[in-house]
Amino acid sequence: MNNSAVFNQAIQLKPVGAVHNQSRETDWGKDFSDLSWQKKTVKMKEMRDRVSKIEIDPGLEGILDGIEDFSHLLVLYWAHLVPAERRSQTKVHPLGNPDFPLVGIFATQSPVRPNSILATFVRLIQRNKNTLLVTGLDALDGSPVLDIKPFNPEEKHENVKLPVWMRQVHREFQKDAGQDCDKGNRAKGNDQQA
User: Fold this and answer.
1) CB under 8 Å to 193, separation ≥6 — which residues?
2) pLDDT at position 102 over 70
3) How far is CA 61 from its chain centroid?
4) Residue 50: its pLDDT value, please?
5) Per-residue confidence at 85, pLDDT binned at 50, 70, 90?
6) CB under 8 Å to 111, separation ≥6 — which residues?
7) In angstroms, what is the C-alpha Rg of the chain?
8) Long-range contacts at 97-105 (CB < 8 A, ≥ 24 apart)
9) pTM over 0.70
10) Per-residue pLDDT band at 190 (split at 50, 70, 90)
11) Residue 75 forms beta bridges with which residues?
């Protein structure tokens, strides 16, 4: 199959579940857009600290069997509230901060993407039949869940390189915990500039 055929091929996905939580505010709405990027990271951290319920389609009986043996999961979900007209955007200033460089969407974690598939590592609190309780999920209430995979710590990545702006965002996220992502990178010899 040539690239032209691949690029024009439609892919149909069926959600396997749905997210239920108190997070209903989109990050492209007026209230969020008016915040400084530092305050945006605080709101994003608050959102991630909340407990979310992932309800899996009851017709997929047995699909979660054994998942309770894992502490962390990777959840892939659809950013269902991104307006179609925003999906053609190819460049942004991360977190809307004009001091950060204008970069391609694939160099960010923005929900505004050609295919609004997002992925987040979460902590599994509890499984009850076809329902999972998790923390760390940055999905909005009603987000369709596309897939769930267990986290495997053996898949380590060494010498991870991050741009300066991303390290700055990480520092803001870690402020409350008293951690500094640069400190960990320097200790491992990974303090690379973008």
Assistant:
1) 164
2) yes
3) 26
4) 87
5) confident
6) 26, 27, 28, 79, 82, 118
7) 18
8) 97/36, 97/37, 97/165, 100/37, 100/165, 101/163, 101/165, 103/163
9) yes
10) very low
11) 120, 148
Q: How far is CA 181 from CA 18, 47, 62, 121, 188, in A?
A: 32, 20, 39, 17, 11
The domain segmentation of the chain, as residue ranges, is 13-155, 156-194
Amino acid present at 124 = L
Distances (CA, A) of 133 to 45, 64, 76, 93, 106: 18, 13, 15, 33, 29
How confident is the prediction for the chain on average, in pLDDT?
81
**Choice between 169 and 122, residue whose per-residue pLDDT is larger:** 122
Question: How far apart are alpha carbons 64 and 145 in whole angstroms?
Answer: 13
Is 50 exceeded by the pLDDT of residue 189? no
What's the CATH number of domain 13-155, 1.20.80.10, 1.10.150.170, 2.40.30.70, 3.30.450.370? 2.40.30.70
Tally of CB atoms within 10 A around 49: 10
CB under 8 Å to 17, separation ≥6 — which residues? 54, 55, 56, 57, 130, 144, 145, 148
| Cβ atoms of residues 68 and 152 within 8 Å | no
What does the CA dihedral 48, 52, 54, 55 come to, rounded to 10 degrees?
-160
Token output for 88: 């053609």
Cα end-to-end distance, the chain, whole Å: 36
Tokens of 49: 């600290």
